[in-house]
């Protein structure tokens, strides 16, 4: 399998992340929401990739603190 065909949980393209979230019922999963999360400090790389584990932990911390 070519490198570009491999799924990386630590460098997932934002488009793929949003598609996976929407397919699993996340109604809030939009480019705008992801951009807002990035502005709020979410661990989203400059190239738009997302470390899924770090992003999930970031979301959990925000939820725990009522954000």
Describe this structure in words.
The chain is mainly α. The chain has one domain. It is built from three helices and two strands. It has helices at residues 14-23, 31-39, 52-64, and strands spanning 12-13, 49-50. The chain has a two-stranded antiparallel sheet. The longest helix has 13 residues, at 52-64. The chain is globular and about 35 Å long. The protein starts with 11 loop residues before the first strand and ends with a helix.
Series of secondary-structure elements, N-terminal to C-terminal: EHHEH
Radius of gyration: 12 Å
Which runs of at least 5 residues are low in confidence (pLDDT < 50)? none
**Percent of residues in beta strands:** 5-15%
Question: In order across it, which strands form the biggest sheet?
Answer: 1-2
Number of strands: 2
Q: Approximately how much helix is present in the residues?
A: 40-55%
Structural class: mainly alpha
Biggest sheet details: 2 strands, antiparallel
Counted by DSSP, the helix tally is 3
Instruction: Report how far the terminal alpha carbons are from each other.
Output: 41 Å
Number of domains: 1
Notable traits:
67 residues; 2 strands; mainly alpha; globular; two-stranded antiparallel sheet
């Amino acid at each position: 399998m070519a490198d570009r065909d491999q799924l990386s949980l630590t460098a997932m393209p934002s488009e793929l992340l949003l598609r996976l979230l929407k397919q699993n019922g996340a109604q809030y999963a939009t480019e705008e929401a992801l951009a807002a999360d990035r502005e709020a400090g979410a661990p989203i790389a400059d190239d738009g990739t997302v470390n899924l584990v770090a992003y999930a932990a970031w979301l959990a911390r925000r939820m725990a603190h009522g954000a």
